[in-house]
Amino acid sequence: MPDKTIICKDCNSEFIFTEGEQAFYQEKGFQNEPQRCPSCRQARKQQRRNFNGRGNRSFGDNREFNNKW
Ligand SMILES: [Zn+2]
């Protein structure tokens, strides 16, 4: 599989979904391609961590994040 260029949903910048990452996704059984560039993904991960620190109010939402990641 060749590298893929994807437009980030959050910041609209292009990023590369590399062959290695595609293999990783397949290995994990993810059906979807990533929608966000690595830095936005990182930012969201950190948000999630902060969120969890404050309580479990939106556990369902967090699960959805994981699926869409
Ligand atoms: Zn982005």
From TrEMBL:
<feature type="compositionally biased region" description="Low complexity">
    <location>
        <begin position="49"/>
        <end position="59"/>
    </location>
</feature>
<feature type="region of interest" description="Disordered">
    <location>
        <begin position="46"/>
        <end position="69"/>
    </location>
</feature>
<dbReference type="Pfam" id="PF13451">
    <property type="entry name" value="zf_Tbcl"/>
</dbReference>
<dbReference type="InterPro" id="IPR025306">
    <property type="entry name" value="Zn-bnd_dom_prob"/>
</dbReference>
<feature type="domain" description="Probable zinc-binding">
    <location>
        <begin position="3"/>
        <end position="48"/>
    </location>
</feature>
<protein>
    <recommendedName>
        <fullName>Probable zinc-binding domain-containing protein</fullName>
    </recommendedName>
</protein>
<feature type="compositionally biased region" description="Basic and acidic residues">
    <location>
        <begin position="60"/>
        <end position="69"/>
    </location>
</feature>
